Amino acid sequence: VIRAVGPLGELARRCRHLVRRGGRILALKGRRPDDEVAALPAPWRAELIPLAVPEVDAERHLAVLRGR
Fold this sequence. Notes:
With 68 residues, the protein is α+β, with helices and mostly antiparallel strands. The protein contains 2 helices and 4 strands; from the N terminus they run βαβαββ. It has helices spanning 8-15, 34-38, and strands at residues 2-3, 24-29, 45-51, 60-66. Strand 1, helix 1 and strand 2 form a beta-alpha-beta unit. 15% of the residues are buried.
């Protein structure tokens, strides 16, 4: 689980050696990061899950990255 590292593509490149086959990277994001998802390097793909955070009046999303 990672927060505040950078764009999803950079995160995938930096962390790929830490992820086993079938593993995932979970990243907390603010507004829906569609542009970052579109820029993910192959073979990475992302599922975006909207989050409701109590007492926070801002968008939050969980990005679930899968790649290998």
